[in-house]
Amino acid sequence: MHLARFPRVFLAHLPTPLERMDRLSKALGGPEIWIKRDDCTGMSTGGNKTRKLEFLMAEAMAEGADLVMTQGATQSNHARQTAAFAAKLDMGCHVLLEDRTGYQDPDYTENGNVLLDHLHGATTEVHPGGTNMPAAMEAAAQAARAAGHRVYVIPGGGSNPTGALGYVNCALEVLAQANERGLVIDHLVTATGSSGTQAGLVAGFKALNAGIPVLGIGTRAPKEKQEQMVYDLACRTAEKLGCPGVVERADVVADTDYVGAGYGLPRADTLDAIRMFAELEGILLDPVYSGKGAAGLIDWCRKGRFKPGERVVFLHTGGSVGLFAYKGALARG
Ligand SMILES: *Cc1c(COP(=O)(O)O)cnc(C)c1O
After folding, report:
1. Annotated catalytic residue: which of 76, 159, 195, 290?
2. DSSP state of 268
3. 57-82 exposure pattern, b = at least 16 Cβ within 10 A, e = fewer
4. How far is the CA of 146 from the centre of ligand 1 (A)?
């Protein structure tokens, strides 16, 4: 496994810190909890899409693209980070946004990530919830090609084998940090959505024979579907790495009990987790992904599903820009 063989633009601030969360660990009274700060990757406030985009945007450049296109929810962090990369690399960026929540609040429709998409110079078009977004994006890409553009299409969340290489890279980085400081990691917990983050981590850890189980906390799909998505992508990523067959179905575990009413709709425990991290650790989570991931982490600790003294790393995937789109929910909660 040799990541330098794949084209990459080096724009992320790496390595991201791996830090102890002493106050949160004490408050929960179970395992020793650490945090991997992928909210600090650096492009337009950072987040997990930055690592994926290092590989995706390198491919776009190699193909001579002058326009990148992607899609996501209204408050997509992936859209915002793609827009920032396109600005830096002198490409156009067009984003299709799906209204998955139905929120009419102008903070949701115009602030947070949407504000930053436009600030980075991206153009956006809005589609109603339930739209076949990959099909809509293909149609938009065809129209742009007909108008003379060289278009590079990035799937939602940047989740394909190229994007997942970013989280293979994260697996390498976490393992090196743990080895340097004599830290045995018993579990890694992350929010999971379009699946590239968990898939890259699983493929990377398996290829490295690290023995670190990854627990994905779902943010949208039911368990069966989520695990199958992650498993399929992890297998394809392992193939791309030259390690076909290293990922087994049992390596992919997702707990989707913290999704609530749906994607982008925070539950009470999502908001509690956001407050707990902010008040005890000075760390900002988000209402769509990392808040649900942390709610899962907290619940697993309280239920004694991690043994006392075990070392658990929570991957902070970013997204705090979204807090400004959820002012109403946070104020009410
Ligand atoms: C996209 C995203 C995730 C989910 O990562 P996937 O690779 O899509 O599974 C988690 N947290 C944040 C903040 C995100 O923006």
Report:
1. 76
2. H
3. bbbbbeeebebbbbbbbbbbbbbbbb
4. 32
Best of 317, 323, 324, 326 for a ligand 1 pocket test (most atoms within 8 Å of beta carbon): 317
- Residue 182 tokens read as 């004599």
Which ligand 1 atom is the nearest neighbour of the CA of 77?
Answer: 15
**Residue 314 exposure: Cα atoms within 13 Å on the Cβ side:** 32
β-bridge pairing 18-20 and 32-37: antiparallel
Asked if residues 313 and 215 have their Cβ atoms less than 8 Å apart, the reply is: no
Tokens of 302: 């309280």
Ordered alpha helix ranges (H), the chain:
22-28, 49-62, 77-88, 106-110, 113-119, 133-146, 161-180, 196-207, 223-241, 268-281, 290-302, 327-332
- CB distance 59 to 37 below 8 Å: no
Distance between CA atoms of 34 and 46, rounded to whole angstroms? 19
How does pLDDT run across 89-119, given as a tens digit for each residue? 999 999 999 999 999 999 999 999 999 999 9
192-227: pLDDT as tens digits: 999 999 999 999 999 999 999 999 999 999 999 999
Q: Which atom of ligand 1 is nearest to the CA of 194?
A: 8
Positions of the chain with pLDDT under 50? none
- Per the listing, tokens 């649900």 go with 292
Q: What is the pLDDT of residue 333?
A: 54
Treating both helix axes as pointing N-terminal to C-terminal, what angle do 196-207 and 223-241 enclose, rounded to 10 degrees?
Answer: 50
Pick the atom of ligand 1 nearest to 159's CA.
Answer: 7
Q: Is the dihedral of CA 56, 134, 40, 313 positive or negative?
A: negative
CA distance 114 to 307: 41
Task: Name every residue whose Cβ is closer than 8 Å to that of residue 136 and which is 6 or more positions away in sequence.
Answer: 71, 96, 127
Does the global pTM surpass 0.85? yes
